[in-house]
Amino acid sequence: MTGKPFFDDIDRWSDETFLDKAKITLNGKITNTAIILLGKPESSHYILPSVAQITWKLDTEEKAYEHFEIPFLISVNDVLRQIRNVKYKFFPSNQLIAVEVQKYDPEVILEALNNTIAHQNYSYFSRIIVTEQTGKLIFSNAGNFFEGSAEDYTTGNKTPQRYRNRWLADAMVTLKMIDSMGYGIHKMYKSQMQRFFPLPDYSKSTMDEVVLEIYGHTIDENYSKLLIEKKDDIDLTDAVLLDKVQKSVPINDEAARRLKQKGFIEGRKPNYFISSQIARITDKKAQYTRNKGLDTELLKSFILRHIDIHGYATRKEIDELLMDKMPDYMDEKQRKKKIDNIIQDMRGDTILNIGNRKVPKWVKKNN
């Protein structure tokens, strides 16, 4: 209702008038939209056999799930709070300080979730599913794209002419849950690009289901570094093409020429890969290495070399050996946790504990 000259009148409206103006009710009568967006959970039976439910599923080493009922106007924020959103660090080659971003943009999560509600085919009697994996979120809703495809909306130039659920979509526009100009997908693409992550992926969608994957990790480190180091030179079109290259999706000859002329990709058709941007920091390389820390395989080699020289390694000796080789941004607890992970990764493969759990004594496995 933004932009309409009746803000001063809202306080004088009855609830019925307000809900009608918001396109939630119709002539004061309850609609399916009213139940889906504002209804109490016990009122969901009024839209049977259709289903109005969002299921969050944790699909990692840990397993969990939770169902979220109507009203969806409130439930979408409950789903958002359920998702673990930690900080993610990038280490570009042309600067000394790590670039830190949230794993997921909350606005992207809400945009994706609200789109599933607005465009769900409720005649399929299916719930909306949000799957949280270690490095990505997967949003699934019943029905295909009602008009066009995801790629049609990436630039923000296409405006949909029709909706599957017109009344529901209009109400969600009024409540600022979605926009009416087709900018939602464009905003998600821009956010992922500006945060240096892989772009939203609809490639697993079918004629009966829209599947959106939102990444919270890197696929090809060179892609993220390129977006950071060349952010003033890369537009969304370039980012979409580079995202295809990192995901091994074929690009046409014209796109390949465009990226090669800019020095963004190498290789020959069809095996293109993103160019590695080598750091040119002459007097600050040592500080950069300290910020980033040494490669895990190199740290493992230090442990094995220590055992070669001394016959075994205690945990105290390993700590003394590796603590000062961890990234500068880590505190003592984080460094010890990383050393724990390194030892566990080597355990049973290259080293064995001939001591006990309290006082371990590590030797090479072939000893």
List keywords for this structure.
five-stranded mixed β-sheet; 13 helices; 367 residues; Heat Shock Protein 90; 2 domains; Arc Repressor Mutant, subunit A; globular; alpha+beta
How would you concisely characterize the structure shown here?
With 367 residues, the protein is of the alpha+beta class.
Describe the structure.
Helix content is 37%, strand content 16%. It folds into two domains: 31-215, 2-Layer Sandwich (Heat Shock Protein 90); 293-364, Orthogonal Bundle (Arc Repressor Mutant, subunit A). It is an alpha+beta fold and 367 residues long.
Secondary-structure-derived class:
alpha+beta
The overall pLDDT, averaged over residues, is: 89
Rg is: 26 Å
Name the strands of the widest sheet in spatial order: 2-1-5-6-7
What is the count of distinct domains?
A: 2
Unreliable residue runs? 278-284
CATH class division of the largest domain: Alpha Beta
Strand content: 15-25%
**Measured distance between first and last alpha carbons:** 76 Å
**Annotated CATH topology of the largest domain:** Heat Shock Protein 90
- Helix amount: 25-40%
Strand tally, please? 12
Number of helices: 13
User: Globular, elongated, flat, extended or rod-shaped: what is the shape?
Assistant: globular
What oligomeric state do the depicted chains represent?
Answer: single chain
Secondary-structure element pattern, one letter each: HHEEHEEHEEHHEHHHEEHHEHHEE
CATH architecture of the largest domain: 2-Layer Sandwich
Q: Report the biggest beta sheet as strand number plus sense, adding barrel if it closes.
A: 5 strands, mixed
